[in-house]
Each structure stands twice: as structure tokens, then as C-alpha cells.
Design a protein that fits this description.
A hairpin with a 2-residue loop joins strand 9 and strand 10. Among the domains are: 165 residues, TIM Barrel (Alpha-Beta Barrel), CATH 3.20.20; 190 residues, Maltooligosyl trehalose synthase, domain 2, CATH 3.30.1590.10; 132 residues, no CATH class. It contains 37 helices and 26 strands. Helix content is 44%, strand content 13%. The strands form 7 sheets. Strands 16-15-14-5-2-1-18-17 form an 8-stranded parallel sheet. It is α/β, with parallel strands linked by helices. It is globular, with a radius of gyration of 31 Å.
Amino acid sequence: MTTPLSAKPLSAKPLGAKPPDAKPPGATYRMQFHAGFTFADAVAMVDYLADLGITHLYASPILSARPGSAHGYDVVDPTTVNPELGGEEGFLALSTALKRRGLGLIVDIVPNHMGVGEANDWWMDVLEWGRRSPYAKFFDIDWDAALPAPTGRILLPILGSPFGAALDAGEIALHFAPETGRFQIHYYDNWLPVAPWLYADLLDGAAARLGADAAAQLAHLAKGFAKLAKEKAGDLAAPHTRALELRRRLAELCAQDPATSQAIGNAAANLAAVPGDPASTIALGRLLEAQAYRLSWWRLAADAINYRRFFNINDLAGLRMERGEVFRTSHRKILELVAGGHIQGLRIDHIDGLADPKAYLEDLQSHCGGTAENPFYVVVEKIVAENEELPSDWPCAGTTGYEDINLLTRLFCDPAGEASINEAYRWFTKRDQPFAAVLHQAKRLIIEVDLAGEVSRIVRRLIQLAAENWHYRDFAIAAIRRAVQGIIVHLPVYRTYVDETGVRPVDRRLIEQAAEAARAEVPDFEAPIYDFMIATLCGEGGPEALAIAKAFQQVSGPAMAKGLEDTGFYRYFAMIALNEVGGDPRLFAIDTGDFHRAMINRPQQRPLAMIAGTTHDTKRGEDARARLTGIAAKPEFWIAAVERWTALARELSEIDSNDAYYIYQSMLGAWPMGLAAEDADGLDAFRERLETAVFKALREGKERSSWTDPDEAYEEKVKAFIAGSLDPTHGFLADFVPVATCFGFWGACTSLAETLIRHTMPGVPDLYRGAELWELSFVDPDNRRPLDVAQLLNAPMGTSLPELMTGWRDGRVKQELIRRLLAVRREMPDLFTIGSYTPLVAIGDKAAHVVAFARQAGEEAIAISVTARLWPILLPLNETMEGTATDFAVAWDDTAIPLPPGRYREVLGEREIEITPDTAMPVAEILGHLPVALLVKQRDAT
């Protein structure tokens, strides 16, 4: 168990004394660490990453997580480096290897929550000691919640059946561990502590079965344990120390006298339930009711949970990071590694979960030695909704780039296809509901079911606050709950940022708009309560109003995330490329002008924000998404294919047409390059991956099945549909594979175009592990499949891109493109950080297809990016189906781009180009051999 905290307050001085002196990142490479991919595995890739042009390794969480964790976000001990990854020794070896090649390290940290259970000493200490635990204030626990039991206890919803049924069945038992002197409650693989002062009665019962000497020794220890119940609050470490000593002596006594050990074990066993005898459970039941926790059925969690969770995940408990002691204790190891020069940047997970994100970032910068003029590199995981901006006063470099993922996806969607795509979806699925309604229903479901307990905590506090105001005290609990739920449903962003400095005008406007929309849905006599809600959620009305506003903000974020990303996106499938983290299916497409307007001020705003293509959280890989954008450019081709597939799969279609539509798109996006209908092993592997992804979609969508109430009969029908569709003897595959091949080539061209833009637009390009080749993954866990490191390391570098384009299916053309782009970034770092962004507007028949812009720093440092959008329209169908189109000049006719004059090196096609004043260069000449071009101005030899 944990070593108790000292009663002496921790130092408030910054823990990281060394100011940041590292170069900012130029390109990052995300690695997912777990027991199957450790620090040592990363060391083996350092030379490859350096040669690729990466400047910073970007690591998933490195602190000790729950044993066997595949992701690291369930940290159980933030004071140590995860031993499963190689521990601190392995981490320092990785740091040394990175420094040898001049690479930095950015580490993902998780300040919002911890994984809880027996692996977390802090949590177990709270369960053992309750409010008296020194860690009780670390977790965001509502000890006064009105549970259907006395207050002051933590609800633990871990039982598979109601408490009484589990007790009667003997599933809950008391055990004694003589080697540690501990009593424990066991429930299958779970164990829970027993409050130390309750040992007294158990030991007294055992003493009655022993001889006089042994009984006296045991009785003496029992009195010592009993005294712990009378300890007063104050020196919290003292009772912990005495309890540890008493247990040590008890263990020694058991080791010296087996009879004593046996007697105690028998006393614990005597509390076991006897089947058919309800009275046999009374003693154990009373012991359980005396604990600081209340064991309960897992289904009670949604309504009665009294600790803040990460979303609705019971075993991820929220931390009170706004408390200085919590911040310093949980960050000590990371800050030690920062101060030691081993970490050059931090990525903050789920920043919106914190009570005060701005204050947290200010504290972090202070402890890392950052200043306003020279900040430590920090990026935040934050969903920036449409027409929302990251708060300008947050001391960070920016976000991890979800907004850029969606911006590029929409750039490569054809707006002309929107009406046809939406009409086809309504026709095929017989669903007319717009996405706005789908989203509102999904959010309402989440707050009424999954987050009902969190909403109840806010409602209880609002009732208490309203009781102090004569104008609002007579409103019913149900009316206040409707107001809270309605405002959350209608809030168009994840959260607002009301804090001690007040409410920003933009946040007041959002709160007022959401409140007015919710007010319109209730009877007139409830309308006045919304004035009270607006004032409170704006933090007006004293300290408790501000506290409620902060608590509300910590709930509205999870409600949006679960309602939008994990429910709405799995119900509405008009075009799933748009169903991405940070995205919105209602925002179908943008044109080049929209894209340029989004980019033009970025070099002055947050030039070091990350630009993501794929992350561990994205719903599908970047190249699957790029491929699926082709549906918008060729809606008639897609619709005709779906009609054929529906006819071919008629005998398989015992599933909802909405689910079938999702499966068709998912198959198209993730179909492996070159997978043939004759490849039985390849089809089996793909089928298993597809089934896992589709079953997750079904359960997240919560319509035909769910995680809490899975419909296994329906899921079997879906499984049969997938298996039948992938059966080579069925006619479906014979039709599907040519279509997938066609979209595959279009998608490859789109992916290369997006890759060029991501690596030359303002910001820091982030590469997800393995995504330098084609990234066609489904949602997690598919995107965490083992990385084929040998395939990456053995790929020769330096081959010409036109040559690699002829074998485009192996993905090496993308890998080499990235290497060349990063080489230019390395040669001209200022150009891509502080360099200006200038849109270049094409002329001619196909001007709308051209995406071109210049980055410039000074008079001579100029790089011009040129590519195209909507490749399915540009490239002939027959050529793409054969996958042989490598001459792109045929598509451009008279289209040209006016470019700044000078001598340029086209670094991708390895050509020299002279641009004279007042001329527009034909796009056919720029993109004659590749779908992308990067022109770098040559410096004057003199």
C-alpha cells in the first residue's frame, strides 16, 4: 500500500528550475507505448526517424499505468515511469538515443483522471480510510451526495448483480492475508481494503478460539486497531503509521504462531454466506456497510455515482488538479524529467476536463521554467468547434490538430456532391432525420442515462443555491434538472471557460443562446428559472455560483464528446469521412478560398500548433478518410455501386439498412491495397478487423445494441452479413473489389495532396506511427495493431517519386514524399514557423481544383506548394481502375498559376524551373509527373 503523505505542505516553489532552451519542434512522430512496444523498441527506430526528418518523438503516456494497459491513459502511479515500458532506466536510454541524433521528446500526460482499482495505492487508501485519507481530496468525490445510503461513502459500482443477490450467492467474501496482516474483501478478481479500526472485532472473535497467551497478544493488537477509530482529524499521517505498525506486528504473530493465523482465517471464513440461509449474510453485510465505500450493482453507476469520472468510465476517476498539492504530487516525476533535460515538450490530455484549464497551464509553464517570452512547448488536446477559437490567453502552442484533420477532409470533398449524397442516404436508409436532431437526441440520452449522476450533483447544488433566493426557491427539482439538461443539449461547443476572472463575452453569448433554446422547450411557468441558470453558469452570484459553473463545464464536455463522437457519429452515416473527432457532418465541404482564409493568419497566431492526420483517437486512418472523400466527387458512381451491392446482398440483408450503409463505407475506406478476392488469408484478417469495428459502432450507437445491453442475436446477423459479403463465392466481392481499386487510386492521390499540405501549411506536422505508409485503420483498437517496424526500416530512401508512383500500392511513395518535405523543413525551419502564408490563385477551366500557396520568410526564402483537389473528377475512370495513371498533365488543359518569378528547384520531381515575371505557369507542367509539387526558390549564387 501507499506511503502516506506527510502532513507538512509540499513546497509551492516551481519544481522545474531549468528554463526551456530547446528548439521548437519541426515535425513530430507519435508512438504508442505498451508492453508489446517498449522504450527499447523505440530506441531501435531513432536512426530511422532522424533520417526521415523527424525532430521530436511524441510519446503516449509513460507513467505507470494499470498493468497490461494498451494505451497508458489509465495511470495508477504518476510518481514512477511505467515498468512495463522499460521503467526509468529504459526511458533514460531512449532519451540518450534521441539526444545522440539531435531529436527532442514530447510526452503525453493525463492530468484530468487516474485509473482506479487495486493497482492505484492512492485510491485504495481512500477506500480504506475514507475522508481521513490524505488522498481523499485528490479525487473529485462528492462525499455528501444523497445516495440511497448514509453520506460519506464512495459508490463502487463493480457488482454484476444487485448487492443483496451478490451477497446471498457468496460472491463477496472476507479474506485474511497472514503475510501482510490485512483483511480484504474479495469479489471475484477484485479486492478491497477493510477499514483498520474494524479489525478489532474480527481479531477479538479469533482470540476467543485461542489459548490464553495467544489470545492476550491478539486482544492487545485488537485494542490498538480499535483506537484508530478515535483518531481526530489533523495529523493524517499518524494513524496510517500506527496502522502499518499494527499490521506488521500482526503478520509477525501469524508467522510465529500458525494456530493464530489459522484462527484469524477461520474467523474471516465464518462470515461467508451459506446458500439458502439469508441470516448468514448479516455479519458480512454489516461489515461492508461500515466501510468508506458502498459496493453496488454496476447499473447504479449512471444514476448514483458520486465521484467525477472520465466520461462515463467508472474505473477512471477525476482528479482535483486545481489543488496545488495534487498538481505538485502528480506532476513531480514528469517535472523532474523536464528539469533534467529529458523532455522538451508536453501534450496535455483532455484539457477540457479540468476545472480551470488556463490556471493549470499557467502553473505548468511556471513549474517547467517557461515564461511569456520563452514558453515551454505545450500543446493541448482540445476540440475546437466550428466558429470557436482556442482561448488566446492560454499559455500553450496550440492544439493537437483535430481541427486541421477536418479542415483538410472538407477541402477534398466536392460541395456539388452534397445534395446527392444526402439524398442517397435518405433513400437507402429510409431515415429523414437531420444530423442536428440526431445529435440532440444523442446528447439527451447521454445526460439522462450515462451522466445522470453527474447531472444530479449539479442539480443538488443548484437547488441549494436557489433556496437562498426568494425568486427561484419555489422551482421544482424536475424543472431545474430540465434546465441543466436542456442547456447542455443546446450548447454548441464542448464547454465554456468561466473562471475567477469572470465570463468572456463569447461564453456569455453561448450560455444565453443555449438557455434560450432550452427555455423554448418548457412550459412558460418554468421560463424564469433560465435567468437564474444564465447568471449562475456565468459565475455570477458568489463563490458557490462560480463553483457550480465550473462543475457544469466539466460535465458539458463529456456530454458533447459522448453524444457527438461516441453516439451521433455511430448513428448518422451519410458520409462517414466527416464523422471524425472534432468534425461535424453538417459541414460538408469548403473551397480553396475558405482554406486560405483559415490559414492566412496562423503564422502570427499559433505557428507551433500540431497538424494531425491520424491520432490514436481518430475514427479512421488518414488515408481511409482521404479515400472516402472520393464519394462526394463521384456520387453517381457510388450510388450505382450501392444499388448493385444491395441487390447482390439481398439474401444476406437481415440487418438494418443504416448499418449496411456504414459497413459498405467502412469496407471501402479500409480495404487493404491490392487485396484480391482470391486471398483467403487476407480476407479472413480483414473480416476480423471489420467485425470488431462494426460491433463497436453498433454498441456506441446504442440503437440496435449497446455496451450495457448487447443484442447478441442482432450482432450475429451483422456478423453473418459481413462473412457472406466477404465470401469469395458470393457475387458481392467480384463487384466490390474493382470499385475499391478505383477509389483506392483516387484516395492515394488525395492522400499525397493532403500530405503535401500538412507538411507545408503553418504548424508542426504530426505523423502517427506507421502512417508514413498508407494508414487505412479503423477506430481503436485497430489503429493500435502491432507496427511492422521492419517494413519501415528496410524501405530504401532516395528513390525518385515518379518511379515510386508506378508502384503506389506499397505506400513507399508517401514515405519518400514525407522524407523530402521534412528535408526542406529542416533546411529552412524559419520559413515554416514564422514564414508568411500567401494564397496563390489559379486561372483556367480547372482552377477550382488547384490548391497552391507560398510560404515566405525574407526576400529569398520562398517555398510554393502546388497540388489538386477532387482527383476523381480529374482522372479518367478506366485508368484509375487499372491503377496505371502516372501522367497527370492530361487533366489540366489551360489551367495555370501566376507564380513569383525566380529560379526554383522542384524538390519532389527533381527538376529546375525558371519562372519569368508576368507569366502564369501551366499546371500541367508543374504536376506533369506527380500529383504534388514543392518549388523552393534558389538563392542567387552571387
